[in-house]
Input
Amino acid sequence: MSSYGWLTYATARQQLALRLADSGNVFWADAENGLYIQKALRMHNALTYTWKTDFSYTSSSLWNSLATLTGSPRLRTLTDANSYTNLEYMLLEPPSGGTWTGTSQFSLNDLSQALQRRRDEILQVSNCNQTLMAGIALAPNTRRTTLPDTVIDVARVRYLPVNGNPVTLYRDDSVAQEFYEAGYLQAASGPPQTFMLSSEPPLCWDVDIAPNEPGTYEAVALQSGAAFQPPAATLLGIPDDFAWVAEWGALADLLGRESEATDRERAAYCLRRYQDGLNLLLKSPWIMLAKVNGAAVSVDAIAAADRYLPEWDSAPASFGPMVVIGSIDFLGAPTGAGIGVTVLGNAPVPVLDGDFVQVSRSNWDAVLDCAQSLACFKMGGAEFQQALELETRFVEAAAAENSRLKSTGSFSDILVQRGQAQDRNQERYNTKNSGQ
Output
C-alpha cells in the first residue's frame, strides 16, 4: 500500500501541543495528544473515504466477515479499554484504561455501561455485526422457532431438511399469508416457503407451513456484541474508524445524567456528534469492487441474489460468479476461489514516535484542526465553544476532499453506494409507513 513519509508521529504531537499553547505538555499530556491525532485521522477517513484498499483471500467457507478475516484491512482491533482511556482524558480523569483511579464524579462502571449501551445501539442501527447462524434446531410439525437473546435481527432464513433440497424462505407476514396463500394454517405439514417476523414475539419467527422433515434452519442474523467486563479488554465490535461514535454517545449519557458531573450543554453537543456519526456509518462505502479468480464480478445484495438466482448458495463453489453482501463487512463468495475486494480500509494510525502520519500535506492542517477541537473538549465553557470553529473548518475541508476524490471517476457515486445494496433491496427501517 502506498504511504506518506514526510511527518513523524512525534513531530505531529509537538505541532498539536504548539497549537494548544502547551509545548511543555502541562495540561495536555503527550500521550493524550497522540490519541487525539489518531482519532482525527479515523474521523477524516470516515468523512473522506480516503483509504481504499485491495484485499485478497481464498474463500474456504461461503460466508466471511472482513472484520475477522486474517490480514483484512477492516479488522476490528479497538477495545473498550481504548475507549475508557479516551473518555477519561476528555472528562479530566486519570487515564487508567480498564481500571479506575479517578474522582467520585464517575466510576468505571459508569463508563462501561454508557459505552456498552451506545455500542449496542450502533449495532442495531448500522447492522454491522451480521453472522451466519447454522444448525438452528427445528421441531418437525412446528411452525415457530425461538432464538437466543443475542439475536437482534434476522435478514434471511433457509430450511435444510435431512432429506431433500434446501429451501430459501421468502420473508413475508401473516396478513399476506391470509390474503394470498390458500389454506394458510390448514396444511398439516410440508416444506415451508416463507418466514414471518412482524406479528411474532421477540426472538421468534414463524413459517407458513410446519416442516414435515427433520433438519435445521440456517439464518443470516444480526448479533449483539460481547459484554464489557473491565479490567479485561473486550473488542468494541464496531468498525475501528467509528469507535469515536460510541464514545460521543457515552459522553452524552455521562454528562446528561443527574449528578455532580451534569453538563447539559456539552451533553447535547455529544449527542449531536453521536447522531451524525451514526448517519455517517450508515453511508460508509465499505466495499466497492470485487473479483473472483482475477475476473471482475458484480457486487450483489443477498436479497437480490435470492430473487434472481434462487438457491444460489446450494452450489457454493460455482454460483455467479459474484460476491454477495449483507451488512457492513459481511459477504459471501464462491468457495475455493481467489477472492479480491476493494474496500475502505481502516485509517492507518501511527503508534511509535518514528511512524509517519498517513496524511497528505494538503490535509494535515484540517486533521490538526480536528485534533485541536477534540483536545479542547475537556476545557468546557466558552473555550470549548470557541474551538468548535475548528471542528466546522475540519468538516468543510473533509467535505471538499471527499468531493475532489469523487470527481476523479465517472461513476464514483455508484462506487460508494455498493455497500448499502442489501438495505436498498430489503429495508430495515420502513419510513414510508412510519410517518417519518
In short: The longest helix spans residues 381-406.
